[in-house]
Design a protein that fits this description.
eight-stranded mixed sheet; disordered N terminus; alpha/beta; globular; 535 residues; disordered C terminus; 16 helices; 18 strands; Aminopeptidase; Glucose Oxidase, domain 1
């Protein structure tokens, strides 16, 4: 392995040197960016206000709207232009909760720890009910429980033995990890199968919610997908006005949930008391992104963008997901403004909402400004949320599509930037390698042709625009903080966020200064659907 790593490092150095010689890098600006970003950073001040002061930012909640207005005001204060809240579509109602308590009152008195899922109702004061275990794996299972659940508290999952962690909870990428990232995996063609399975799961979840709404149980409890006392609570998708959210649903830590199941199985009657105070906010259903600009000069009609998503889940304060990315993007444009940068192209920062419900804010923005698809004619497809539909054709682009240069996103936690995913765009590899060269000493030196998904660069990439997500150290993002009650300010890494902001500032500046826009991949095209085998 040492020889392999040596050869890989030597090749990367050779490629970096060659690319650096061909692609202009403005080292005077890089030095100014590093000075401002590493010695006068405001990134933690931004993150602290978003998390500790404002708190969780569920889309269309009062906290999310407060955060959006605060961000817009910061952009104004820094001297950015056209800072505004831009509507992207009719999302639906917001939701917030003030408190949630749950404890066993019989056969023992026992405090329990759980959090409500978003968009579930409150209990209108303390409410008591008996527990019962239910198993619903298909819609046929509804008949086993019809007429038997009213007033009960349902335990929806089987008990699960906590896992012995063999993977480190906190991890940084090693040289070997980054070498593996540079290896391109041949697609296996099974993404359609995974999508079908997800749609089946989603359909069962929606029908189960409708069934429970009709049966009137007092509440339902799910098992957290994390162990070690961590609650991973997300939402019920019942955010459309008029939609029946069903009963209150809570997500409970593994260790307490398992004990409840054992009590129900051994003792028979187990009584709980639940008190949830939750509020639906239906006064405004439109949802907004926050955008602002650093105007360009000679190529001001062309656009370079950067951003991250402002919304979060509600269990913690949305620190690593994604106050980290928001703070980095805001700090990047603050740095450029502070050093007096005069980019040729306009640099536009965008902070999205609705990301946690399917990249809704960025999808709406791309559809409005750059490219759109016709509505599906298949009733089944039309009934699905836009994010889950099969692509329709033709793809209709706007004039702004031709003037777009690049979008850079940060949304994989608090870890420092180690490189960037090129999204199978071979032509940008030497360019990005050159741009990273002045930051190799900060640990950023990897450009991979691999693609990554599930965040806000995807809507740009889907319509043939250059959209990119940075490679980040994983830290404890997927093991501890992602969508959990531990996603709080204390889990942010100061030095990593400072490093990330300087690199993002440099990338968007260099994208805005190139003589030519960044090269693009071929436009997406309609692909023939394979004929199913008759065997």
């Amino acid at each position: 392995m040492p020889n392999l790593l040596f050869r890989a490092s030597a090749f990367a150095l050779l490629l970096s040197t060659a690319a650096f010689a061909e692609e202009p890098v403005h080292l005077d600006i890089v030095s100014a960016i590093r000075e401002e970003g590493l010695h006068h950073s405001k990134v933690m001040d931004i993150a602290l206000y978003l998390t500790d002061v404002i708190g969780p930012r569920l889309t269309n909640s009062p906290q999310q709207r407060e955060a959006a207005e605060w961000v817009r005001q910061q952009f104004d204060n820094w001297g950015l232009k056209n800072a505004e809240l831009e509507a992207w579509g009719d999302f639906g109602r917001g939701w917030s909760f003030e408190h949630a308590t749950i404890h066993m009152v019989r056969p023992q008195h026992l405090p329990l720890f759980a959090l409500p899922k978003a968009w579930t109702p409150g209990t209108n004061g303390p409410a008591k009910g008996l527990c019962t275990r239910v198993t619903i794996k298909t819609v046929e299972d509804f008949e086993k429980y019809r007429g038997k659940l009213a007033g009960k508290i349902l335990l929806l999952d089987e008990a699960r033995s906590p896992k012995d962690d063999t993977v480190p909870v906190f991890k940084r990428h090693t040289g070997e990890d980054l070498c593996k990232l540079e290896e391109f995996p041949i697609p296996d063609g099974k993404s359609g199968d995974a999508r079908k399975e997800y749609l089946k799961t989603r359909e069962l979840q929606d029908k189960t919610r409708e069934f429970l709404a009709s049966e009137k149980p007092l509440a339902a409890i799910e098992l957290s997908s994390r162990d070690n006392g961590i609650v991973r609570a997300m939402g019920s998708r019942s955010y459309k006005p008029g939609q029946d959210p069903g009963p209150p649903v809570l997500c409970m830590i593994t260790e307490h949930y398992n004990r409840l199941v054992r009590f129900v199985e051994d003792e028979g009657e187990v009584e709980l008391e639940i008190d949830i105070k939750a509020t639906f906010h239906e006064e405004e259903t439109l949802a907004y992104n926050v955008v602002a600009e650093l105007p360009g000069t000679s190529k001001s009609h062309e656009i370079v963008m950067l951003g991250g998503h402002l919304d979060s889940w509600h269990g913690g304060t949305g620190a690593t997901d994604n106050a980290a990315g928001v703070s980095v993007a805001m700090e990047a444009v603050r740095i450029l403004k502070a050093i007096g940068a005069k980019p040729k192209r306009t640099i536009r920062v965008a902070l999205w909402t609705g990301e946690e419900q399917g990249l809704l804010g960025s999808r709406g923005y791309v559809k409005k400004h750059f490219a759109s698809r016709p509505e599906p004619t298949d009733p089944e497809q039309l009934a699905l949320p836009e994010v889950l539909r099969e692509p329709t054709w033709p793809l209709r682009t706007t004039r702004a599509h031709d003037k777009f240069c690049a979008y850079f996103n940060l949304d994989n936690g608090s870890g420092k930037i180690r490189g960037i995913y090129a999204q199978e765009n071979s032509a940008v590899v030497p360019i990005f390698t050159a741009w990273l060269a002045p930051f190799n000493d900060l640990g950023a030196d990897t450009v991979t042709l691999q693609t990554t998904g599930s965040t806000d660069h995807v809507p740009f990439d889907d319509v043939g625009l250059p959209g990119f997500q940075f490679i980040q150290d994983p830290l404890e993002y997927f093991t501890r903080t992602h969508h959990t009650n531990l996603d709080v300010y204390d889990r942010l890494q100061r030095d990593d966020l400072m490093q990330s902001a300087t690199i993002m500032a440099s990338f968007v500046y260099h994208a805005a200064m190139r003589d030519e826009p960044l090269p693009r991949k071929p436009m997406p095209r309609e692909r023939a659907v394979p004929v199913e085998s008759k065997n």
